[in-house]
Write a structure and sequence with these properties.
binds adenosine-5'-diphosphate, 2 domains, alpha+beta, GroEL, about 20% strand, three-stranded antiparallel beta sheet, GROEL, domain 1, 17 helices, globular, seven-stranded mixed beta sheet
Amino acid sequence: NIGRSQMCVDEQGNPFILMEEQAAKKRLQGIQAHKANILAASAVAQTVRSSMGPRGMDKMVVGPDGDVIVTNDGATILEKMDVDHHIAKLLVELSKSQDDEIGDGTTGIVVIAGALLDGAMDLIEKGIHPLRIATGYEKACSIAVQRVEEIARKVDIHADDGEALKKAARTALGSKVVSGRKDQLAKICVQAVLAVADLSRLDVNFDLIKVEGKVGGKLEDTHLIHGIVIDKDFSHPQMPKVVNDAKMCILTCPFEPPKPKTKHKLDIRSGEDYKKMYEIEQAYFRTQIQHIKNAGCNLVICQWGFDDEANHLLYQAGLPAVRWVGGVELELIAIATGGRIVPRFEEITAEKLGKAGIVREITFGTTKDTMLVIEGCDKSKAVTVLVRGGNQMVVDEAKRCLHDANCCVRNLIRDPRVVPGGGASEMAASLAVLSAADQEQTIDQYSMKAFAQALDTIPMALAENSGLSSIGEMATVKGLQETTQNAWHGVDCMQVGTTDMWEQSVYEACASKCSQLRLATQVVKMILKIDDVITSADVMQ
Ligand code: ADP
């Protein structure tokens, strides 16, 4: 293409022609672009479909360094999958936004979006314009959300020791790798969230819930600590392992005498000199320790290290100490105990000390690992869930599962309405959309029908993953919903013997389901509007 070329001259004066590289650009337009986009996105949706529900499969994702994670969480699978296709990335983002916003339902949302796109593909082939499909989907989405809100039931989150919250957390955990211990973990989640929840503002500050993992032990050894845990130990092995009624000074200055800096020389010529220096050093340490003790402190938390000499003196003075505490942890301790971070020894005063009911060292099995637990903090309600598990993979996955369950409990504190799981909400919404489609006079009726069909993918996937006949099971349950006029009938994945999800206590937060429908529809609409994809060669795979 000479029109896009340029004549140039190099340093030696030789002319050359600079041409724009046309062949390197790839461009898809119109229906071709729509189809390619939809295919890519639904391929992503297919990969997570089999991991839905209590009987869903887990995925193993091998990272670029050969590190392995095993997970069932949709957002994590997609995040780690290293998706290259630009449109497929939108689905990854979709799952992430559900994760950020709600925290649970990240697999479901991608499956719904995939199904909506598949439906759109059929309609495009029939000749309906993508924008018409988008409007139809939007109409259908508001009907679906309305129906889901209609069938929601309000639960009393305080009744019976938060039983309703536990049931919802159990549903969230039931489909995860840790499902064997869901009762215990659900209890921990509810206790943790309620401990930090601000019930007057109906919100939960997740910064106050720390989830720490420690490899070793069993999953059932996971427990809740009403305080903070830091990965440190007391500096001297003979210091007491427990400090009751702790008053701690939090230091950012090193526990050592001032050192000569580079430009100064210390002239020690005789044993006498050396002794003198030693005595000065000792005196220095002693005044420091005395200063701390005078302030009423009985535990030293120090950002820096100190040598054996200082360590021994601290031990002799009966002043337990912790050294090399990182900046972030130091701040956490300061916030939780109400102490001030002190940069100089001279500045330590009684009111700058942090207070805690008990500080103790905990050990694990036969390993040398120890952790420091600070409980009964003065200023903060912060809690820590200490997750145990046979290996790093289990611990990591358990942490992710706890996050989902915590989010689920938080959502119910914000809005205590629940909707049935097991695909019941989707089927009820599907029936409502279908009947609205029958009333619809415009061409939108086709896309509304497609929307209803897409919603059915959830119960079908749940049934399929549980080894049941997907269409058969869905048809039976849907029939049941119609005849009994009870929208709480869903797929009995665990073969408990009843399809009533209220009886099975399988329910999820209403907010989560509505957000799934809304976000999925939004992204699908966006994908349907793209009709021109221009990619430079180096990004094309
Ligand atoms: P997500 O990441 O979307 O939460 P999950 O793999 O956790 O995906 O699966 C959640 C789906 O499984 C929800 O639709 C929920 O209703 C359903 N589910 C969970 N537990 C049960 C159960 N015991 N019986 C039937 N359905 C269940």
